[in-house]
Amino acid sequence: MNTWIQTAKLCQEEANKANDEIQPEDSVSVTSKKSKKSKFLSTASTTSSARSERLKVELERAALLAKSATLRKKQNLEKHELQLKAEKEEL
Asked: CB count, 10 Å around CB of 42?
């Protein structure tokens, strides 16, 4: 019976050592939370990059539309000048 008690004590000591080695950071829930956080940060970064790219494209589009409007206006003025010049030559 004495041997059984000694074996039980040894098993208890080994279990205590194993418990001492386990840290809260080793928990599956903590690891899962870290993983979710990194996925969230990655998604947030991708979303931010997508927003930045979209804003950049929208700004380029606005610049092109403004340039297009200016060129149309210039073209209309040149047409009008040519009409005036033609009318002047007729006189």
From this structure: 10
Lookup: tokens for 90: 């007729």
Find the Cα–Cα–Cα–Cα dihedral 38, 44, 50, 54, rounded to 10°: -170
With vertex at residue 47, the alpha carbon angle to CA 46 and CA 50, rounded to the nearest 5 degrees, is 85
Q: What angle do CA 5, 7, 9 make, to 5 degrees?
A: 70
How far is Cα 83 from Cα 71, in angstroms, rounded to an integer?
18
Question: Whole-prediction pTM value?
Answer: 0.46
Which amino acid makes up residue 88? K
> HSE-up of 73 (CA within 13 Å, CB side)?
6
How confident is the prediction along the chain (91 residues), in pLDDT tens digits per residue? 567 667 767 667 776 666 566 666 656 555 555 555 666 666 667 777 888 888 999 999 999 999 999 999 999 999 999 999 999 998 8
